[in-house]
Amino acid sequence: MNVISQKTQQSFAEFYTSYLTEHTDRTSRQLHFFGSTLSIICLTLLALSGNVGWLFAAIVSFYGFAWMGHFQSEKNRPRSFKQPVYSFLGAWLMYWQMLTGQISF
Length: 105
Known about the structure:
mainly alpha
């Protein structure tokens, strides 16, 4: 019997549909957006300064605000614990969709 769950074998499109159902709370989406934006700023500062401390700040910003949204607002467990790659990609797709008005804040 295959020990890998069917849930982790899904396509990204299937994953993302489910991912969005775990981001229905407005405050959670806002925290995701803020953390992602802050991580972009930190990565820009890394590129400009060469100070690797900005990389740490980018990671903490990106995941810290997202996880705060999950634990405090959504009351669920972040997908990044079980499906880190798809979760990372999903977070940036959701960010883009919020930025372009496809998903509300």
